[in-house]
Amino acid sequence: MTERVEIGGVAATELAQQFGTPLYVYDVAQMRQQMRDFKSEFEARGVDYAVSYASKAFATVAMYEVVKQEGIHIDVVSGGELYTAKQADFPMAHVSFNGNNKSVDELEMALDYGVGTIIVDNFYELALLEDLLAERDQHQDILLRVSPGISAHTHEYISTGQVDSKFGFDVDSGQMLTAVKQALASEHLNLLGLHAHIGSQIFDEAGFRGVAERLVELAAEAEFVPQVLNVGGGFGIRYTQEDQPLPATTFIDDIITSIEQATQAHEMPMPAIWVEPGRSIAGPAGYNLYTVGSRKDLPGLRHYVAVDGGMGDNIRPALYQAAYEAQLAEPADDRPTEAVRIVGKYCESGDILIDEQNLPKLEAGDVLVLNATGAYGYSMASNYNRNPRPSVVFVEDGQEQEVVKRETYQDLVRLDQHYDLA
Ligand SMILES: Cc1ncc(COP(=O)(O)O)c(C=O)c1O
Ligand SMILES: N[C@@H](CCCC[NH3+])C(=O)O
């Protein structure tokens, strides 16, 4: 017997009725729990730390408010994320700012807001930041992002730590050493330490151990005693039954042990360890709700079932061949099971949400729930085909609240202007 799907104590069908579909729903307690688990792992090991939620995974005012309540830090990668965090009155001292091409305006904004740490990616930014700080006679804590030469086993597009990457200072060519010297010599930059991020949706402990050890070695090579080593995020989550990730806290344990051992070997004091998890906090707690519409049956070949959303609200299958699993919101054990392809309503053949899954025979009007959609779904949504973006609902303790309203057709044309020059 399958059960009706409840999220945070509220039935998925009720949410679909109340707010319409497609709909993004988050189980807030689940996100809180993951944030607390990260913190307790560090606290149990008695090391200095910062857990900095990589908010690119899912950033809205309400999300920043929840993160603020849990007392963890955030990482932002744009003026837009920074502005949103400000609207949530997020403590700016607990914000770090990543990015490989921060604009002058974005850096000025970070300095105006008093962002705690800027994670400097390249020489252009190093010089620009130095100039801006000199003009203002201001000081700024920074980390230097290095490209550690570690390849993570994940999709090429979400792998970032390999040598041939656009992110961070290269090591082999001496760029990192030069950057460390330059930062240490600066009057306005306070170099706290090094940062690296090897990629996303990683299951393999070796990658995290590798990056942790490598950062200690690199600091030793640069003859620099870091106060902070930031090993990035990337902890893999379970999207389908085939995914068997270790709990993210196991990775944390490994990272701490690796840094302890490596610093001892180099006779270096233990630094604070910073991590930047995004997906592991927002991903498992998110659900996309859709209503089933049309179908196309190709005898002997395939059954296509279309829902009222698709690549506009979840681009990940089209972009990374990401796999998801769905469940029917209400039990339908009396129906026969069939293997179906779940597709969206967008004008693209690649608009596939699930390549193939066995589900009770779907009927128009059914509410279908896609699991583990909380990371990089809403945050990568688009208005392709001029479809309005769905609303976002938070559910906690049996209560629901819409925290982002559904876009309307009026919203779609809000910034459009009539062409007057003709
Ligand atoms: C610098 C940096 N930090 C943290 C993250 C978060 O990664 P994830 O969401 O996989 O934890 C990313 C994204 O891959 C990133 O580029
Ligand atoms: N957007 C990617 C991961 C983030 C990469 C950011 N460095 C995904 O959906 O998996």
UniProtKB/TrEMBL annotation:
Pathway: Amino-acid biosynthesis; L-lysine biosynthesis via DAP pathway; L-lysine from DL-2,6-diaminopimelate: step 1/1
Cofactors named for this entry: pyridoxal 5'-phosphate
Orn/DAP/Arg decarboxylase 2 C-terminal domain sequence ranges: 24-374
Domain of life: Bacteria
Binding site for pyridoxal 5'-phosphate: G234, E276, P277, G278, R279, Y376
Catalytic reaction list: meso-2,6-diaminopimelate + H(+) = L-lysine + CO2
Family: Belongs to the Orn/Lys/Arg decarboxylase class-II family. LysA subfamily.
Function recorded in the entry: Specifically catalyzes the decarboxylation of meso-diaminopimelate (meso-DAP) to L-lysine.
Subunit structure: Homodimer.
Name of protein: Diaminopimelate decarboxylase
Gene behind the chain: lysA
